[in-house]
Amino acid sequence: MRRPSSTSSPTHVDNLWGRAGAGQSWLSSLGNSSLVFIGPFGITIAFIVLTAFEGSFCAFAAAAFREGFWTIFDKHRPRLTVNGALALACWIAWQALLSQCLPAKVRTGQYTPAGHALTYRLNGLSAWVVTHLAFFAFSWLGILDPAFIPRNWSGLVAAMNYGGFLAATLAFIKAYVWPTHPDDCKFSRKLRL
């Protein structure tokens, strides 16, 4: 496949690429989308095993067998808190600010099936360094409690899981309503919002 130059208009590569290509079934799509739920579910199980059963999967399995899996799950699952939700919102805002404000070279990624080259800013390492320096500085100055994360672990895990579902939902809606490159969309016109 010839890659288009940055000045040429993109050319559509193949009509059969992606999840909506030939031979794809709803069962296959359901199987692929199950990964979206398995990740947060697995993290929640790990959280329960670590916090309520001292890291023992055997003790967890015995309690789930004795009392019922969903009873144990609901009793010990992470709970969303205001502190957890605010911390996640501040974290996302901080990372977005760093992404836009830190100096960075703009790089091109892989080409999409329609021939568009997506760009990204190459400043992740500097954002990591600035984040850790800010954490240590704010902790030293007494602005940030260094034990905030372990003290609010349940609320943070719940906020991260719910935040992940929210981000995926918003990205899905954006793909339907405001696609960045409409010629890369494989949605049926009947399904468009």
The biggest beta sheet reads: 2 strands, antiparallel
Helix- and strand-based class?
Answer: mainly alpha
Radius of gyration, whole Å: 22 Å
Strand order of the largest sheet: 1-2
How many domains comprise the coordinates? 2
Q: Averaging pLDDT over every residue, what do you get?
A: 84
Distance between the termini: 33 Å
Share of helix, binned? 55-70%
- What gross morphology would you assign? flat
Run of helices and strands: HHHHEEHHH
Q: How many distinct helices? A: 7
Secondary structure: number of strands: 2
Strand coverage percent: 5-15%
The unreliable regions are 4-10, 12-17, 189-193
Please describe what this structure looks like:
Helix content is 58%, strand content 7%. It is mainly alpha-helical. The chain has 2 domains: 20-77, no CATH class; 80-193, no CATH class. Strands 1-2 form a two-stranded antiparallel ribbon. Strand 1 (105-111) and strand 2 (117-122) form a beta hairpin. The relative contact order is 0.14.
Describe the structure using short key phrases.
about 190 residues, mainly alpha, two-stranded antiparallel sheet, 7 helices, 2 strands, about 60% helix, flat
Structural topology:
Blueprint: H1 26-52, H2 57-67, H3 69-76, H4 82-101, E1 105-111, E2 117-122, H5 124-140, H6 148-151, H7 153-177
Antiparallel strand pairs: 1-2
Helix pairs in contact: 1-7, 2-3, 4-5, 4-7
Question: Gist?
Answer:
This protein is mainly alpha-helical.
